[in-house]
Amino acid sequence: MSTSSAEADARIEIVLVKSGRTKLRYPASVIADDGTRLSVRAPWAADGVRDFGFVRFEPGDVFTEHYWRDRWYAVKEVRDADSVLKGWYCDITRPAVVRDGEVLAEDLDLDLWLSADGATVLRLDEDEFAESGLAERDPEAAARALAALEELELLAKLGRFTSLID
Fold it and tell me: Is-annotated flag, keyword Hydrolase (predicted)?
Protein backbone atom coordinates (compact mmCIF):
# COMPACT_ATOMS: atom_id res chain seq x y z
CA MET A 1 0.00 0.00 0.00
CA SER A 2 1.27 3.46 -0.83
CA THR A 3 1.17 6.46 1.46
CA SER A 4 -1.40 8.09 -0.79
CA SER A 5 -4.28 5.62 -0.94
CA ALA A 6 -5.74 2.32 0.19
CA GLU A 7 -7.93 0.09 -1.97
CA ALA A 8 -11.59 -0.45 -1.11
CA ASP A 9 -12.31 -3.73 0.69
CA ALA A 10 -8.63 -4.07 1.70
CA ARG A 11 -7.84 -4.94 5.30
CA ILE A 12 -5.89 -2.35 7.23
CA GLU A 13 -4.67 -2.01 10.82
CA ILE A 14 -5.73 1.00 12.86
CA VAL A 15 -3.01 2.04 15.31
CA LEU A 16 -3.98 4.58 17.96
CA VAL A 17 -0.98 6.08 19.71
CA LYS A 18 -1.06 8.15 22.89
CA SER A 19 1.97 9.64 24.66
CA GLY A 20 4.32 7.74 22.35
CA ARG A 21 2.81 4.31 23.08
CA THR A 22 0.35 2.17 21.18
CA LYS A 23 -2.98 2.52 22.98
CA LEU A 24 -5.03 0.30 20.69
CA ARG A 25 -4.49 -1.71 17.50
CA TYR A 26 -7.27 -3.38 15.55
CA PRO A 27 -8.16 -4.53 12.04
CA ALA A 28 -10.58 -2.66 9.81
CA SER A 29 -11.92 -2.87 6.27
CA VAL A 30 -11.33 0.01 3.89
CA ILE A 31 -14.54 1.56 2.57
CA ALA A 32 -13.00 4.39 0.55
CA ASP A 33 -9.83 6.42 0.23
CA ASP A 34 -9.64 9.58 -1.87
CA GLY A 35 -6.05 10.34 -0.91
CA THR A 36 -7.11 12.86 1.77
CA ARG A 37 -9.80 11.03 3.72
CA LEU A 38 -9.67 7.31 4.47
CA SER A 39 -12.89 5.65 5.64
CA VAL A 40 -12.91 2.24 7.29
CA ARG A 41 -15.34 -0.04 9.10
CA ALA A 42 -14.46 -2.02 12.21
CA PRO A 43 -16.25 -3.78 15.06
CA TRP A 44 -15.85 -2.48 18.62
CA ALA A 45 -12.20 -3.31 19.28
CA ALA A 46 -11.90 -3.27 23.05
CA ASP A 47 -12.80 -6.05 25.46
CA GLY A 48 -16.20 -5.88 27.09
CA VAL A 49 -18.35 -2.79 27.56
CA ARG A 50 -17.18 0.78 27.98
CA ASP A 51 -19.85 2.89 29.63
CA PHE A 52 -19.22 6.63 29.36
CA GLY A 53 -22.51 7.54 31.03
CA PHE A 54 -23.80 9.24 27.89
CA VAL A 55 -23.18 6.21 25.62
CA ARG A 56 -22.08 2.59 25.92
CA PHE A 57 -19.68 0.98 23.48
CA GLU A 58 -20.10 -2.79 23.53
CA PRO A 59 -19.51 -5.98 21.59
CA GLY A 60 -21.58 -5.93 18.40
CA ASP A 61 -21.16 -2.18 17.88
CA VAL A 62 -19.81 -1.19 14.48
CA PHE A 63 -17.65 1.87 13.91
CA THR A 64 -17.38 3.64 10.57
CA GLU A 65 -14.24 5.69 11.01
CA HIS A 66 -12.97 8.60 8.97
CA TYR A 67 -9.31 9.65 9.08
CA TRP A 68 -7.90 12.69 7.34
CA ARG A 69 -4.31 13.20 6.27
CA ASP A 70 -4.74 16.99 6.51
CA ARG A 71 -7.05 17.50 9.50
CA TRP A 72 -6.48 17.23 13.22
CA TYR A 73 -9.31 14.84 14.02
CA ALA A 74 -10.91 11.48 13.29
CA VAL A 75 -14.68 11.00 13.22
CA LYS A 76 -16.20 7.68 14.25
CA GLU A 77 -19.85 6.92 13.56
CA VAL A 78 -21.08 4.36 16.10
CA ARG A 79 -23.96 1.95 15.46
CA ASP A 80 -25.25 -0.89 17.57
CA ALA A 81 -25.54 -4.51 16.42
CA ASP A 82 -28.93 -3.70 14.82
CA SER A 83 -27.42 -0.76 12.86
CA VAL A 84 -29.17 1.84 15.05
CA LEU A 85 -27.07 5.00 15.16
CA LYS A 86 -25.74 5.83 18.63
CA GLY A 87 -23.81 8.94 17.58
CA TRP A 88 -20.36 10.17 16.62
CA TYR A 89 -17.22 9.97 18.71
CA CYS A 90 -14.47 12.30 17.54
CA ASP A 91 -10.84 11.96 18.50
CA ILE A 92 -8.64 15.01 18.23
CA THR A 93 -5.47 13.66 16.61
CA ARG A 94 -2.57 14.75 14.50
CA PRO A 95 -3.29 14.20 10.79
CA ALA A 96 -3.38 10.46 10.07
CA VAL A 97 -0.46 8.69 8.45
CA VAL A 98 -1.41 5.84 6.11
CA ARG A 99 1.36 3.48 5.05
CA ASP A 100 2.41 -0.15 5.00
CA GLY A 101 -1.10 -1.44 5.68
CA GLU A 102 -1.62 0.79 8.74
CA VAL A 103 -3.38 3.97 9.74
CA LEU A 104 -1.43 5.73 12.46
CA ALA A 105 -3.42 8.25 14.50
CA GLU A 106 -1.83 10.08 17.43
CA ASP A 107 -4.45 10.83 20.10
CA LEU A 108 -4.09 14.33 21.59
CA ASP A 109 -6.39 13.72 24.57
CA LEU A 110 -9.34 15.84 23.43
CA ASP A 111 -12.60 14.27 22.25
CA LEU A 112 -16.10 15.30 21.23
CA TRP A 113 -19.33 13.32 21.39
CA LEU A 114 -22.41 14.09 19.28
CA SER A 115 -25.54 12.07 20.00
CA ALA A 116 -27.54 10.51 17.16
CA ASP A 117 -30.35 13.05 17.58
CA GLY A 118 -27.88 15.95 17.53
CA ALA A 119 -29.17 17.24 20.87
CA THR A 120 -26.09 16.39 22.93
CA VAL A 121 -22.66 17.80 22.12
CA LEU A 122 -20.01 17.08 24.73
CA ARG A 123 -16.40 18.22 24.90
CA LEU A 124 -14.43 15.47 26.61
CA ASP A 125 -11.09 15.02 28.34
CA GLU A 126 -10.10 18.69 28.47
CA ASP A 127 -8.49 17.99 31.85
CA GLU A 128 -6.36 15.20 30.33
CA PHE A 129 -5.33 17.56 27.54
CA ALA A 130 -4.24 20.22 30.03
CA GLU A 131 -2.32 17.64 32.09
CA SER A 132 -0.60 16.18 29.01
CA GLY A 133 1.77 19.14 28.78
CA LEU A 134 1.30 19.41 25.01
CA ALA A 135 0.83 23.18 25.25
CA GLU A 136 4.32 23.49 26.75
CA ARG A 137 6.04 20.85 24.56
CA ASP A 138 4.41 21.77 21.26
CA PRO A 139 2.32 24.97 21.43
CA GLU A 140 1.49 24.86 17.71
CA ALA A 141 0.09 21.31 17.97
CA ALA A 142 -1.90 22.27 21.07
CA ALA A 143 -3.39 25.27 19.26
CA ARG A 144 -4.31 23.11 16.26
CA ALA A 145 -5.90 20.51 18.55
CA LEU A 146 -8.05 23.14 20.26
CA ALA A 147 -9.02 24.67 16.91
CA ALA A 148 -10.05 21.21 15.64
CA LEU A 149 -12.23 20.65 18.71
CA GLU A 150 -13.87 24.05 18.26
CA GLU A 151 -14.49 23.36 14.55
CA LEU A 152 -16.20 20.04 15.30
CA GLU A 153 -18.26 21.55 18.11
CA LEU A 154 -19.42 24.42 15.92
CA LEU A 155 -20.41 22.10 13.05
CA ALA A 156 -22.33 19.90 15.53
CA LYS A 157 -24.18 22.85 17.07
CA LEU A 158 -25.05 24.26 13.63
CA GLY A 159 -26.44 20.89 12.52
CA ARG A 160 -23.82 20.61 9.76
CA PHE A 161 -21.68 17.88 11.30
CA THR A 162 -22.55 15.13 8.83
CA SER A 163 -21.30 17.31 5.95
CA LEU A 164 -17.82 16.17 7.05
CA ILE A 165 -18.52 12.56 6.15
CA ASP A 166 -21.14 12.69 3.39
Answer: yes
